[in-house]
Design a protein that fits this description.
Layout: E1 6-8, E2 47-48, E3 58-61, E4 76-77, E5 85-93, E6 103-106, E7 116-124, E8 127-128, E9 136-138, E10 141-146, E11 164-165, E12 176-183, E13 190-195, E14 204-206, E15 216-229, E16 233-235, E17 241-243, E18 256-257, E19 261-262, E20 273-274, E21 276-277, E22 283-289, E23 295-300, E24 305-306, E25 309-310, E26 313-314, E27 318-329, E28 335-346
Parallel strand pairs: 19-28
Antiparallel strand pairs: 1-16, 2-6, 3-5, 4-8, 5-15, 6-13, 7-12, 7-15, 9-14, 10-11, 10-13, 16-17, 18-21, 20-24, 22-23, 22-27, 25-26, 27-28
Length: 348
């Protein structure tokens, strides 16, 4: 039986902290001195390279000199998304090289378990030159949040489960915005950007520039934001209070609660990935895809529950993509046909 949910909006005194950006120096405008060479990420306040002895992301500024000025860099032509500064890093080398660089920052304050957060940033590959060593694109570019700083050994991949990752190759000459939301399950203090784990599951392809010279996937980033955003609380028929994925004041009202993780370990708690409808009379389908885009679960209407298996076999730990297509009536009776996508963590 479909669960009827009533939306209860609660206002708490803790809402005062909503909207504060938890990322220090989010656009890299603060620095100890202007850079004049590549690899001088340490001149930018607050940001680190996961304490690697070899990894050296690049700090660029419009008022810098030599190889660190903008818009003409040694990799590509690029203007800051806003302000005068940005960062660049090698997300991955050629397939099989397992070469990585990471950008990391300590949050201004830890996340609060049970609170919902939105993270966003802008990313581009810029206008790659014919003589550039860049020009590759890579999938699985992700964001990891952790209790302690992640540590990189030399230029090796960091083994971690990101809170977000791109399932397809991310590559664009123009600035794109990446934005995702999650509900914190613990006190998290560090944000790290990069490609996690080894090359075995990555899609690395030549995208632009000179195919003979292209040696790595290089990305520029700017304008980081991480904010605590309000939750609505959905009251189910069995009186459970469920934090929803609908943001207060959002332009679109996604009529489902979709969790961001489940643990199909057979202990009777959170063993299936299930969604809950926020209103009656919605026609919908849900599809779950693995990181290669293969459909591993599909359901239509009713009370869909994925048990973490495909063809009777256990699926590995990791991040899977979901897609919900639905049709419904809005508050004034107009027809709505829409689709939403997101990710789910399978953790055993």
């Amino acid at each position: 039986m479909k669960k009827t949910l009533l939306i209860l909006v609660a206002i708490f005194s803790t809402f005062i902290g909503f909207g504060q950006n938890l990322i220090p120096n989010p656009s890299f405008e603060l620095y100890s001195s202007l850079p004049n060479d590549l690899g001088q990420f340490a001149l930018c306040d607050q940001w680190t390279n996961c304490s690697s002895s070899d990894s050296d992301p690049d700090y660029y500024h419009s008022n810098a000199s030599l190889l660190s000025d903008l818009p003409v860099t040694s990799v590509a032509e690029v203007f800051p998304h806003s302000g005068n500064a940005l960062m660049g890093f090698v997300a991955a080398g050629k397939n099989g090289s397992n070469y990585r660089e990471y950008l990391s920052v300590k949050l201004l304050s830890p996340t609060i378990p049970g609170r919902k957060y939105n993270i966003s940033f802008n990313i581009t590959n810029g206008e790659v030159y014919e003589y550039s060593l860049s020009g590759l694109g890579v999938s699985q570019l992700g964001v990891c949040l952790s209790n302690a700083q992640l540590i990189q050994t030399n230029n090796e991949p960091i083994s971690a489960t990101p809170f977000y990752e791109s399932f397809q190759i991310m590559y664009d000459k123009s600035w794109e915005k990446v934005s995702f939301s999650f509900i914190a399950n613990s006190s998290l203090e560090w944000l790290t950007l990069g490609v996690f784990n080894d090359d075995s599951d990555l899609d690395i392809q030549f995208m632009d520039g000179n195919s003979t010279l292209a040696d790595y996937a290089y990305y520029f980033v700017d304008n980081f934001s991480m904010k605590n955003i309000p939750l609505e609380f959905l009251q189910a028929e069995d009186d459970r209070s469920i934090p929803s994925d609908i943001e207060l004041g959002a332009d679109s009202e996604f009529p489902f609660f979709v969790p961001n993780a489940f643990t199909p370990d057979g202990n009777g708690n959170n063993d299936t990935f299930s969604i809950i409808e926020g209103q009656k009379n919605i026609d919908f389908t849900i599809t779950v895809l693995d990181r290669w885009g293969k459909q591993i679960y599909y359901a239509k209407n009713g009370n869909p529950e994925w048990n973490g298996k495909f063809n009777g076999n256990y699926c590995p730990n990791g991040i899977y993509a979901w897609r919900i297509s639905y049709s419904m009536k809005d508050k004034v009776g107009n027809d709505i046909v829409a689709e939403e996508t997101g990710t789910i963590h399978l953790i055993r």
